[in-house]
Amino acid sequence: MDVVVMARALFGSSLGFHIIYATIGVGLPVMIIIAEVLYLIKKDSDYALMARRWTKGFAIILAVSIASGTIVGVMISLLFPNFMEIVGQVIALPFQMEIFAFLIEAVFMSIYLYAADRLPPKLRIVSIVAVALGAIASAVLITDVHAWMNTPAGFRVTPDGGITDVDTWAAFFNPSFVTSAFHVVFSAFMTVAFIIASIAALRLMRKNISEKERNYHKKALTIALYFGFITSMATAINGHETAQKLHEYNPRKLAAAEGLFETTRYAPLSIGGYASIEDQRVKYAIEIPYALSFLAADRFDTEVKGLNEWPEELWPPLYVHILFNIMVGIGSVLIVVAMFALFWKLVLKKEYPQWLLSLLVVGGPLAMIGIEAGWCFSCIGRQPWTITDVLRTGEAATRSNSVGILFILFITLYVTLIFATAFILKYYFKRNPVSNDLAKGES
Amino acid sequence: MEASSLAITILWSLLFVYAMLGSLDFGAGFWGMVYGKNNQTNASIIANRFLSPAWEITNVFMVILVVSVITFFPFATTLLASILLVPVALGIFLLTVRTTFMVFEHHANRFRNVLLVTSGITGLLLPALLVSILPITLGGFVNFENEYPRLEYQELLTHPTLYMHVAFGLSTELFISAVFLMDYAKEAENWKAYHTFRKHATWLGPVSILIAVLTIGTFPEEAQWIVENIEANWLWFGLSVVFFLIGYGALFIKRSNGQRGFARLAVVAIIIQYGLAIYAYGSAHLPYLVYPDLTVEEGFTNANFYMMLIVYAVGFGILIPGFILFWKLFLKDRRYLKQE
Description:
The complex is a heterodimer.
Chain A: H1 3-42, H2 45-79, H3 81-90, H4 92-115, H5 121-150, E1 156-157, E2 163-164, H6 168-172, H7 177-204, H8 211-249, H9 251-258, E3 269-271, E4 274-276, E5 281-283, E6 286-288, H10 291-297, H11 320-348, H12 354-380, E7 385-387, E8 391-392, H13 393-396, H14 403-431, H15 434-442
Antiparallel strand pairs in A: 1-2, 3-6, 4-5, 7-8
Chain B: H1 3-34, H2 42-72, H3 77-107, H4 112-131, H5 133-136, E1 142-145, E2 148-151, H6 153-157, H7 160-187, H8 191-217, H9 224-232, H10 234-250, H11 263-285, E3 288-290, E4 294-295, H12 296-299, H13 305-332, H14 334-337
């Protein structure tokens, strides 16, 4: 296979692997803070136990997250050296800030993990807050570089391909930075909330658990549902802004996302189906008249640019329409699920039926699929460019012929690690079931 | 000082910190394996007690090093990435195996032995791989094909200097970690482990110095330039040897409590020894990053370097309380050091 394709495959799968752990790494410490604070307010030891057990899981996840983050950071330099040459000149700042955010997270995680019992309660909360802030800041700063690749700013390219007129802050605050950063952070929060809800729902589906254990899992589910509902709403509202930024700065990407070929006013929104180049439209889709124009700029007569505005060689692959739909679809479904479960609890005040619990169990994995689809959409939707309209992926990539063998090596590693993490988490929590911890609390 | 000289000095300083932290980290993994088979041996417990909270920070320092190369020397990325793709990719592969397995082990004691071996073996392979980058930059192992740089694997793998560099890296790693863990064992008042590590430090010290001198003798022909520079820097290397003698001598002083060895003095002197050697080597390496294709000046960024310096200063500034807390909790706190 072509070296460029191999380099993209290797980097794409590395990022796809890392993002699973990184997403949990951003969201879980916030859930731990919520549990710690609830414990301080309600003095209910279940919340302290929750924080402790989540921390154990977090420690395992974080190890893989740090390791895979290191891979991604090094790999992007190795595989796309010409890209990094420009990054180093224009958008070095967030990368440098990120390592310190990363370091804060690592130092305080070690402290929280290995010294929690020796710390006074206040310092313990300070530590976990530092972990959460470090994780969020890391995510925001790396997203900054990603946003800059989508909407580059703060430099000029000279005719001979050099970089000049670098404006560090213009690059840092590039047009899509703020919306993208919120999108990444909110969606990470919501994903972790739904994963916690999944686990709690799975436990609640068992018939043979004690009342005490049932209460424990119900409390966890309640936290997860509130947090999940709020953050999924926030993700959706911010997602709408993200789409408007696409309309303004990346119209080609929006056209591909929506499968729009001809520039149109009163453009309809196509949900589902696939973009067919022969038919010049999205086939088998549900069409909502005027909706796309309205979404793009809040007016029905907004002109939305179609793919035919650009030569075909500049189009991203048309299947990004499907990725985009998966992301938006999952996000919308999860809002409804969370709302419905909360309605059941708050208004009907009834026990969750099995079918609703099963629905919640599916929610966590779905959210993670949504995250993956979103990242794939954002990166594939930028093709054929690595830096939009500045650097093509084919020019950015390495020409080394060793990429193929590395690809096999790393894919093996990722598959092994996914199974190994699942196994270790299962092993650990099986040997330390919550019933034991609850019994210990009583004696 | 010129900006590019300042940048390369910072880079060498980070390399020095990583070399020290990495030696402790990887060395502790190795000693943990050697003394881990028998659960009763204290040396393994001491090694692993240090390793558990410390590895994440060591890992971050490697990332700092990589990010600093790219951001200070963006024009070096194409050459460096092309020739170092395989060794560095293998390095992060092993690092991932190592870190994940170590944490998995922490949560599942049943697999302790398999995982101890993983952390021990990667504790040798990783530094071997990382140190193999040094000879690549000396000249003679990089060729251009259609203007595209390629590493000549066959020439590198059959050249004695590679293996001497690896031997140098490993003996250094084990020496530094033995001396440090000896001090760590003393803090924990674990005298059995203390004497185990002291014993290893006494033979590893002279071996590491001998290998270091012999390694220079195996430099490839193309590297004559750096041999000359090293000879011109003899004063600094001599000073480094003096600190080695102080540190090594400290291992033999008899203390009032009847134990042999001033561990803290030995650690400090040996850190200074390597600090001097690394800066002397670094200055001998100038003006090249990779001989003869890339100089420090050619690689240096055209962006606002002083803004980057502010980020580094603020970043480390924010972290100081964290480092102090870390030091108190894991390197000073008796409750942690002496736990059963």
